[in-house]
């Protein structure tokens, strides 16, 4: 059975990026060990470069969602809020509207709003906007994508919609955010 030190992180600044590789095969012992260490995506060294890039990009794009949402909510979280967080994560990068969330949770829209305000102090739509800005900041920090490409990856209809969300949440545009990311983390910019 491989030791934990045989797990090679592919990106050193990966924070919450559970992408690991092994040198030969992914046997069941290796998978169990890697899962205990937080891995949920695996790469084989003999994969095509494009396949590896696609898996890495998917991990970067979805990385940090759970941590961001949990940090946005107070420590005492109801089962409905936990289910709401999981639903958002599994639907990503597609946006869920309040009515869709209510339907998935089996509760009313007003109850979704109440739960969200109690847990995070924010309206559901505001929490979702913050989440998308956070993910855009992570993509800016960890990829070479430009603002238009990031907007497309996050399913904005156009880059100006992304810029509007940045101005609402941060008070400045994505270009200014890129400059600030040189010195601050996405989490710090959203405080």
Account of the protein in words:
The chain has 191 residues and is mostly helical. 60% of the residues lie in helices and 5% in strands. The longest helix has 19 residues, at 124-142. The radius of gyration is 18 Å and the shape is globular. Residues 1-18 have low confidence and may be disordered.
Quickly describe the structure.
The chain has about 190 residues and is mainly alpha-helical. It contains 11 helices and 3 strands, in the order ββαβαααααααααα.
Considering the chains and any ligands shown, give keywords for the structure.
60% helix; 191 residues; mainly alpha; 3 strands; disordered N terminus; three-stranded mixed beta sheet
Helix run count:
11
Fourth CATH level, the homologous superfamily of the largest domain: Homeodomain-like
What is the mean pLDDT?
Answer: 79
Structural class: mainly alpha
Q: Spell out the helices and strands N to C.
A: EEHEHHHHHHHHHH
The first-to-last residue Cα distance is 43 Å
Biggest sheet, spatial arrangement of strands: 1-2-3
Second rung of CATH, namely the architecture of the largest domain: Orthogonal Bundle
The residue fraction in helices comes out at 55-70%
The CATH topology of the largest domain corresponds to Arc Repressor Mutant, subunit A
Number of domains: 2
Radius of gyration: 18 Å
Major β-sheet profile:
3 strands, mixed
The CATH C-level name of the largest domain is Mainly Alpha
Count of beta strands? 3
Shape: globular
Which helices and strands occur, and which strands form pairs?
Layout: E1 8-9, E2 19-22, H1 28-36, E3 41-44, H2 49-62, H3 65-72, H4 79-91, H5 98-105, H6 109-120, H7 124-142, H8 147-153, H9 159-170, H10 174-181, H11 186-189
Parallel strand pairs: 2-3
Antiparallel strand pairs: 1-2
Helix pairs in contact: 3-7, 5-6, 7-9
